[in-house]
């Protein structure tokens, strides 16, 4: 039995990450009546390397979107820091503007992120105008639309969002991110609102952009199937912390943490019966002592943790924060080495 033990490193891992969270904490005022502040992100180390796609997975309320927003500079951390290309993030308006040219956000709902009164051309050109692009705007917009799979691009210039399919709207959003030639994109549930027939096309597009442009990506999702199809590495988040991380093949074929096992058990192709988690959903203003998952843990509930001699540790002994590197790690008293 172990606590947050590194098992094996990823092969050929570069020494310096492109984007890194170090000891990151983000707290918010709690609901009225709660004594503690809500610890949405409660100690996270996470690295994303050049050309790497990392999937951040977990159920709603686990803190993954807050973590992503903090990495983008939209939510300043309460403690810890974010670094990009080896430099700590500067939260001045001028520095953030320059940073957001290099790191772009792709939202899950293209209908909500596109102005219905703007044409496709204006939607994609908006970033160029904000950053006072000095080159040929029409050429840059055409290139971005082509890279996003909307060809010929001129055919889409004067269309409005309501004239496009859901997949085309998502491609316009991606083109709006690509037009500034970013080094990394943060995609928050990028295919959640799309039909199954279109999801594969968008995932293939993201993989092609990584291959052709060397683009890095953090993909925020509750869908482990999406992580399997797109990611090099996966980080599983629960109640403000990453509880398991490693190469996607390792984590999703031999999950070590009971929470990861439960998430995987509900996939249609998963063997055996789905794990039904009991207890209340995670509440960031009421983080329990010990392992933060113990109140819902099926290993503890079945007596398996007791038989392994770790039940008391599960209930009362906190686990260290996993480091942000690429090695396989798990924050669990019960998980085998």
UniProtKB/TrEMBL annotation:
Pfam families on file: ABC_tran, oligo_HPY
Record bears the keyword Transport: yes
Residues in ABC transporter domain copies: 19-264
Keyword ATP-binding set for record: yes
Source domain of life: Bacteria
PROSITE patterns referenced in this protein's UniProt entry, alphabetically: ABC_TRANSPORTER_1, ABC_TRANSPORTER_2
GO molecular function: ATP binding; ATP hydrolysis activity
Keyword list, A-Z: ATP-binding, Nucleotide-binding, Transport
Similarity-based family: Belongs to the ABC transporter superfamily.
Name of protein: ABC transporter ATP-binding protein
